[in-house]
Amino acid sequence: MAEHKKLENPIDGDTVADVPEQLPSTIIRSVSKKRAEAARVRALREAGKPVKTKDEDEDEAKNIEEQNDEHTLEISAVCEKWLTDAKKGLTYDEYRKKMEEFGQNMLTPPPEKFWLLVLLSHMTGFFSLLLWGAAVLCFIAFGIDNSSQDNLYLGVVLAAVVFLTGIFSYYQDANAAAVMAGFKNFLPEECIVVREGDEKKVVATDIVPGDLVKIVNGMKIPADLRIIACDEMKVNNSSLTGESEPQKREVIVEKKGSQILEAKNIAFYGTLCVNGSGMGLVIATGDNTTIGRIASLAAKASNREDSETPIAKEIHHFIKIISAVAIFLGILFLILGFILGLDALDNIVFCIGIIVANVPEGLLATVTVSLTLTAQRMAIKKVLVKNLESVETLGSTNTIASDKTGTLTQNIMTVQHIWYDGGIKLARGIGNGVVDEKSPSYQYVKNCIALCTTATFISAEEEKNDVPFQNRAFSGDASEGALIKYIEPILRKGGSGILAERKSNPWVFKLPFNSTNKFMFTISKMGEKSESDRVLWMKGAPERIWTRCDTILYEGKIVKKDDYKEAYDKGLFTLMNNGERVLGLCYHTLPAKDFGDDFKYNWDGEKGEKSNFPYQGFTFIGLTALMDPPRAAVPAAVRSCQTAGIQVIMVTGDHPDTAEAIAKMVGIIRSPTRRDIAVREGKDMKEIKEDHPDIGARVIRGVTLMSMSDEELDRLLDYEELVFARTSPANKLTIVKALQEKKFKRYKDGKPPKRVKNIVAVTGDGVNDSPALSQADIGVAMGIVGSDVAKDAADMILLNDNFASIVDGVEEGRLIFDNLKKSIAYTLSSNIPEITPFLIFILIQIPLPLPTVLILLIDLGTDMLPAISLAYETKEADIMMKPPRDSRVDRLVTRKLISFSYGQIGVIQAMAGFYTYFVVLNDYGFPAEELPQASELFFDFAEDSDKAVFSPDPTNTIDATKLSIDNRDIRLIECNIKDENICHQPDEALAHAQAAFFVSIVIVQWADLLACKTRKLSLFDQGMRNTVLNIGLFEETILAILLCYIPALNVLGTRPIRFVHWFPAMPFSMIIIIYDEIRKYLMRSYPPGNLVEEYTYY
Q1: If 0-12 CB within 10 Å is exposed, 13-18 middle and 19+ buried, where does residue 1002 land?
Q2: Bridge-based pairing state of the strands 414-420 and 618-627
Q3: Which of 164, 514, 502 has the alpha carbon at shortest distance from 361?
Q4: CB-CB contact of 265 with 71 (8 Å)
Q5: What three-state secondary structure class fits 41?
Q6: Closest alpha carbon to 783 in 110, 176, 107, 183
Q7: Cα dihedral angle (855, 856, 857, 860), rounded to 10 degrees?
């Protein structure tokens, strides 16, 4: 089991934190057990023995929330447990002991590999090893026969290719790591602690359990704290629980057995204090905090054995196929060579040649560049790709499990609707159904919001720079922040503002909101004159506000509220059913003659009944409805995912009602839920059975999930529309694992079950999402609001926090897979004209039509840029209308792709090469029928041309009719091209024929490249808009010309072939294009699954 070590202790060496790989059922033990275990660990380390923590076999995930029991203890008991004082804090002696025991207050960073090991890993992948092997074989071949430098050149170039592509991919990963390093900002730099009764500002990493910490508005909580004093303190736990609404902290004792995540007397490490102040007693630091344990769980999930990406699996699958084919053919023809009596040395060299010819040497660079180009395109769209291969994984995803808060929603509380004058109005917008800002009743809404809120904007700089109000920082409660952001621009239109309104209508009394009353009110003097009436403005829970009112405001007039009870109930139900947080507004006028400047207001009694001013009999103004709204682009993004056959599931820690409402808004839920059926049938939701036939979408609580058996959970996942609410980190992890392990999908309509293999993407921003992000096939974190733990756990980071970027990612991922298929199809096609010359050479002993170096010039020269250019190919029109690929069937390399490349295009290319080869030799006096068994003669002539005897006139080679060498002869014919250096000269004629064979492959690869631009669309529909591909066509042609016609490059085996010898391959190039267009036309013309598609659609 991997030990989880703390960072170096600044006081006395280093210690080992008691954080086993799987957390025990009681995650934080009592202090005595902790000390005993810490002492045991230290003793073992000092003795040089391996340290193994206890309780290793207990389930960490299911017990992540079963932490300290401090929330269920009295403050005195907590102080006793941690040997501290609730007023004076720790003594310095006790502080030093605890620092030695628990170490510094920081999360253990993820392990980092030494850069050289990372670089080596990029150079020793499975594909890289295959190329290293090919390079070694080339060096061996050169060692066996060093008469030619070909194999040496080949080996050096192959080694250089692996090295350079390894450097390239390491550079990309290093860039992503550098961006990640810029995210680190988790702990506050300093905080105020009380030790021995003195307040002291310390670095947050130096606090220990038992320290007394002062909490102020706006600070990040530096450790897990038990609240021992607070004043209207609220914390934002959204990164931990997914709940967007700030949670109030109280000095209470929770019930025994209650979960610490739900405790109101605990402030968690890394969360934010958004209102009020308080004092907290540190109960856990660093890795022992709730966030620390979730981070450990995430690290464990990320190290699982099956974490290989789908594209890595596909490349391994492809390499296995190619390796098997190469080795099989090499050994087969080695055996055939021995059977046919070939020279052993030559036989081994040619065996190596066959193996090298089968290896697509340029593919490693093509894959790396394709992934890198896509990562760069994603970066433009504000998506950081930490792992290049993860982009393609997103393309194969068929399930996205998304967090709600900050991912699907904006994580900004916003006023959505206002109910007044008996109807619901949109809070902002243009047209019908929007509030009328000139309406008499709306003036009261406006005044109540302005004067019955205490939140304020806090940045003068933002005011100076005219930052939109929705984006401005504020102090106060999130709901009040939403209200002032809404009302300020409306007041500004009238030349006023919140501060101006409050100044001209000053408060004379305020009662803050509390959880008992569930309302707050202010009393304002409406005007600066003493004779101005006072007005009590109140807002709070709708039911509390409504019951205090006798009348209601309707079109600016006060009328009896009973006539509007039905409209009120309907409006309230609609807003709450939308998942919005509803606040009621009311007012009451207090005459100046009774409530003058010297009046002392006194609120008293459980409901205010003992107060010296009215506490009921108010006038109801209306309702305001707030919510954390969906991001504008999310509904369309969800719809695109569903069109692409991707199931989108919401997994959130928020309330089920809110989760369901947001899911309906963004389109995750489109079918009836239990709630919808209950409303439709006028029943309580509990009366509707879970297996009701009309239920098409399920909303499941985390506690319900925990009580489900594996079979029940598997059946639940048969639903297409799912929302999981009130989930813990363990629940999220369970859901992801269950999706990954699901084997069959069952249907309600009686259709037979379908086998499934889910590729699961998880999106999230909070610490609570990190274990699921790690477990997922691809984790996607938010870059702006995302926690550091979530970013570390993820494979990709949305730098703009835009869920819609995931759709771009899916499209890019599918495009990568499509384009890699096209690139492989293009690359493999030339294998047949590269391999067959060796096979024919061995079988019938014709002079070798294509030497190894020219194969290398094709694979790493003329074919390289065209193969890479296919990575730039734009998407085909139906890319987001196809279902996700089934990784068990739709592999990167399939039998159909092999059939297309080898059995169809490759065969035509080989025919073009051999036809050109025979034409050239024929033009130089060597007829095709004389070439079988002539390889030794050609070889001997190249070795020692002085042995050659031409007949009938040995001095006249151009008119010769026969050539003899060492009792071997060959009939010659009249040369069509009478060049005395080539005509009837076996070495030069063969070199020209080999160069022409090389050029013929370039020519048919033109057609192959055009054919591979699309998998189904016509070339004429796709067009020639891929500039890089057009350059690739030009580049391979120019390179072939340079290699042939620059004399210095002829040492590679090329020759300046006659212009006429470029033409024999061109008809074959046309045949390839015509054949491929007919094939694609037949695929498009007939229904899906037609025979042509079945056997040729790769």
Answers
A1: buried
A2: antiparallel
A3: 164
A4: yes
A5: helix
A6: 183
A7: 130
Chain mean position to CA 408: 15
| Packed helices 634-643 and 656-666: angle between N→C axes, nearest 10 degrees | 70
- Using one digit for the tens of pLDDT, what is the confidence trace for 840-886? 888 888 999 998 788 878 887 888 889 888 888 888 777 887 788 77
Q: Would you state the pLDDT for residue 1076? A: 93
Nearest-angstrom CA–CA distance, 246 and 244 = 6
Cβ proximity of 282 and 223 under 8 Å: yes
Give the rounded percent of residues in the chain with a pLDDT score beyond 90: 29
Residue 47 DSSP one-character state? T
For residue 833, is the peptide bond before it cis, meaning its omega torsion is within 30 degrees of 0?
A: no
Cα 742 to Cα 754: distance, rounded to the nearest angstrom: 11
**Nearest of 229, 202, 219 to residue 79 by alpha carbon:** 229
Annotated catalytic residue, options 85, 224, 403, 676: 403
550 is catalytic: no
Closest CA to 921 of 906, 905, 909, 935: 935
Give 781-829 pLDDT, tens digit per residue. 887 777 777 777 788 888 877 788 888 888 888 888 888 888 889 988 9
Segment among 549-558, 666-675, 863-872 with least mean pLDDT: 863-872
Q: Which helix (H) or strand (E) holds 883?
A: none
Specify the pTM. Answer: 0.68
- Residue 447: pLDDT band by 50, 70, 90 thresholds? very high
Cβ contacts of 499 within 8 Å, gap of 6 or more: 456
Q: How far apart are CA 634 and CA 637, in angstroms?
A: 5
* CA distance readout (Å), 774 to 50, 185, 311, 379, 794: 28, 21, 18, 22, 6
Rounded to whole angstroms, how far apart are CA atoms 329 and 355? 7
Which positions ≥6 away from 59 have C-beta within 8 Å? Answer: 22
Runs of H (alpha helix) within 452-564: 460-464, 478-493, 498-504, 542-547
Determine the Cα–Cα distance for residues 846 and 837; give it in Å rounded to an integer.
Answer: 9
Q: Which residues are CB-neighbours of 94 under 8 A, at least 6 positions away?
A: 83, 84, 210
Locate 294 and state its tokens. Answer: 């979730």
Residue 51 pLDDT greater than 50, yes or no: no
Q: What is the mean pLDDT of residues 455-473?
A: 84
Q: In the predicted model, is pLDDT for residue 538 greater than 70?
A: yes
The enclosing H or E element of 789 equals helix 788-793
